[in-house]
Amino acid sequence: MRRVRPRVRWAFALLAATGGAVAWLSPGSAAPAASTAAPPAPTVVAAASGAVAAVAAPVRLTVPAIGVDTALPGIGVDDAGALVPPADPALAGWFTAGPAPGATGPAVVAGHVDDRTGPAVFFRLEELVPGDLVTVARADGTTVRFTVTRVTSYPKRAFGTAEVYGPTTGPELRLITCGGEFDRDRRSYEDNVVVFARVAG
Amino acid sequence: MSRLFRASLLALVSAALCVPAHSPAAAAEETAETGLLRMMHLSPDTPAVDAAIDSVSDPGVGVVLPAVGYGDVSPYQLLPPGTYTVSVRAPGADPATPPALATTVTVAAGAATTIAGVGSFAELQFAVLPDDLTLPPAGQSRVRVVNATSAGSPLDLALDGGPALATGLAPAGHTGYVDVPGGPGRLSVTPASGTPTGLPVDLAAGSVHTVLVLDREGGGLEVTTLLDAASPGMVPVGGVEAGAGGAAASGPPPGLLALSVLALAALVVPLRARFAPRAGTRYAAR
């Protein structure tokens, strides 16, 4: 259970700090003075429970089941708004405009399935199955573990944007690469393979 | 002509061998496996309770949330879709005894629901709040308000320079969702008998929040901004170009691909030799 009420102490401290109602800190002595003003206007304070501790940026991704161990440079979108994996086919990249792995929401990682000469970092991504482990090491030395929940492919022209990027209630991870048939005229795979993972209990 | 012929052969081979591996039906089946349910204790004068969520159709499926006190919010529980009984009892009470309060709720695949115990102890009831955890519009955050204070204090809440979130919201009541500009801001909370108090909030773009207004121990109100769910503040458009085809002929699925390679070798190589001897270099140059 997320305990909201213990935060009351913090609220007290906050009040003391702002000097708004020192009365609350020592009700025995000062409370009567505060309550003489009638009608009593309820004091309104913010609880701290909504605040989310900052999560350090990821630095490395490991997927033992398919032999992936890669640094995680930051990636973004192009002028058309499409996500662009790292230029180096040996590396996967983390989408810095989204949640960090371990923070609430879907953290997004993309990498190439191949380059022009052969397999790249996420060549075997499609082999993952529910239950497989994914580990992300972070800049502060901590590690967060995820468990694969499903592996899906979408045609690129009907990408599952809402499923892949939609809000999640806990920390999740998305690993994205290409799959399906390679259209040699367009030099593009027709599908995207997406691995969904949830933070390990 | 050779191009066309080769393309159709390629399509034929791929259609025969590769498509079943990406059947959309399989994706849909996995997508729709669970729903989300959580509980909140929002009745100021009701003591802590043990809450139970039990599947009606499958007695083996359920969750017990022990000693849930005023202001507590449970994590979302992942549950198989179906109908559930939600019940509360005095802490430590035998789960076989009649509950103090119970209701049924439907958990739908891919949907989220909050069950809140609201109102005074004498009039305790469950409020069923459907949670909208879909993607907010670009750059927006989605927020709603629950007034979990004791009777007599309707509330106004608004974002400074933004929309009203609640107007005259009675105790035990809740608002619908409002889309607001994402980012840090100030939330003005105005009790019926008071002046506005401004509180800093950070409603990041792409996130969904529930603002709880609670009675504070010793008097006054405490405002909690819960992060219900989060998504990237900026959502990429469409799919991802993450391949150049260099391993296309030997990629997964392995078993079928071996066949596919053989078939391609048999069909394409002679064609190339006959009609398009330099096709390979042409592709590489593009």
Explained architecture:
The complex is a heterodimer of chains A (201) and B (286). Chain A is built from three helices and ten strands. Chain A is mainly beta and 201 residues long. Chain A has a nine-stranded mixed beta sheet, with no helix packed on it. Chain B has 286 residues and is α+β, with helices and mostly antiparallel strands. Chain B contains four helices and 16 strands. In chain B, the strands form four sheets. Chain B has a four-stranded mixed beta sheet, with no helix packed on it. In chain B, a hairpin with a 6-residue loop joins strand 2 and strand 3. In chain B, helix 1 packs antiparallel against helix 3. Classes of the chains: A mainly beta (201), B alpha+beta (286). At the A-B interface, strand 1, strand 6, strand 8, helix 3 and strand 9 of A face helix 1, helix 2, strand 3, strand 14 and strand 15 of B. Strand 1 of chain A pairs parallel with strand 16 of chain B.
